[in-house]
Amino acid sequence: MRPGCITLLVCVLACAACHRGPVLPGSSSRATGVYHTVKKGQTLWRICHTYKVSMQDVAELNNITDHSQIRSGDRLFIPGADRVLYVPSTASAPSGSGSRQRGGGTPEPSAPVIEKNVGMFIWPLIGPVVKRFGIHGGLKHDGIDIKGRAHADVRASRSGTVIFAAWLEGYGNTVIVQHTTSYVTVYANLGASTVRQDQQVKQAQVLGRLAAGPADACYLHFQVRRDRKARNPLFYLPKAR
Known about the structure:
This protein is mainly β. It has helices at 3-17, 44-51, 55-61; strands at 28-30, 33-37, 75-79, 99-100, 108-109, 129-131, 134-136, 139-141, 144-147, 153-155, 160-168, 172-178, 183-193, 200-201, 206-210, 219-226, 229-231.
């Protein structure tokens, strides 16, 4: 998206949501952080502990759903870091201790938990994900792009209240639904919306239809936000069939 369009989206969404919900920035913003290359014996928990960052945030940014997924040679984006740090490898703790540690370091959980709320929302559009949540070309992409056909129905991922429904340059029609005091979902790149601001909607109700255009432009930009922060939608949606 062009910078001017992102700024416009920021202003419009702030006005729409300031009295009842999160203030939402544009779909992409400049990413600040570094890439850490995983070395043998390093774990996701130990890497995040060393950099003093949330393991949940790192997992979502890098699309890691299980701490055991990382392998030597993987490159993980560490948000907020200004330099690459040395991360000590871990050694197995004595049998039955339930944790791992290195020397006198901080004990490491044997099975660190990555929070997933799979099934909390339903897919607003059935189709392949053509752009994931995370870092792309130095920009943080705050949602996922789901490919679909022109004029395909886009449905509410959960029941809630429409807090914004309007057209924005560079985004097409955009609908935002407030689900609870904590969660909102964003549906952008619609050709037309079928709901209005302040309308109550049910899960799976049609909110609008995808815009017509070239095949590579027929996609839904979908966001899940919790307490004003973009979260990885794939951690909330059912596994794709």
